[in-house]
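R.M. (postdoc): so does anyone remember the format we settled on? I'll just put the structure tokens first.
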């Protein structure tokens, strides 16, 4: 969402009354408060943001430049994976996750997934709504810290949905030994 488009997007309300331009920042903050968007930082230090990302408007397909995830971690690194199996998929969980983790973004996101980075660690979170699974994978020298941050974020989002049944699985890494 380019902020230069706000006068066009928020020109009038349902009754045809013009929105005052001083309301645009308030509307943007409301979207951020309800985890619908976040402001994309300006490339120039000291300049204000000129756009916001709205995850619910991202394409369904992953970006073409999304690198394939390695079948096993590179030498000297380890991988931690967590699979959240849900009895139903609440609307907006991936959007909220993308908004809450935007400080780690690699600017590779799509409607049901995101690539993240923190202190040299790579992460991929992807929702498969058909299987009702949210898969979280982190690779790096010590991925436990980053995976803990991301798991707490997912858990906080899912805790908002009372009655949701969640099973957390950690896949066995023993298959990597046989692929050497």
């Amino acid at each position: 969402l380019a902020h230069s488009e706000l006068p066009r997007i928020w020109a009038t309300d349902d009754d045809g009354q013009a929105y005052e331009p001083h309301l645009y920042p308030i509307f943007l903050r409301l979207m951020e408060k309800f985890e619908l968007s976040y402001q994309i930082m300006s490339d120039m230090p000291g300049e204000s943001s000129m756009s916001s990302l709205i995850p619910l408007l991202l394409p369904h397909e992953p970006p073409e430049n999304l690198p394939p995830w390695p079948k096993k971690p590179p030498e000297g690194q380890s991988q931690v994976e967590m699979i959240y199996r849900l009895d139903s998929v609440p609307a907006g969980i991936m959007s909220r996750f993308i908004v809450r983790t935007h400080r780690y973004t690699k600017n590779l996101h799509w409607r049901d997934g995101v690539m993240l980075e923190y202190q040299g660690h790579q992460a991929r979170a992807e929702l498969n709504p058909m299987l009702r699974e949210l898969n979280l994978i982190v690779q790096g020298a010590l991925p436990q810290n980053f995976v803990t941050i991301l798991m707490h974020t997912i858990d906080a989002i899912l805790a908002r949905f009372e009655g949701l049944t969640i099973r957390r699985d950690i896949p066995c890494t023993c298959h990597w030994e046989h692929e050497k």
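R.M.: ...and that's the designed sequence above, right after the tokens. Also worth knowing: Residues 144-158 form the longest helix (15 residues). The helical segments are 6-9, 24-33, 93-100, 144-158, 175-178.
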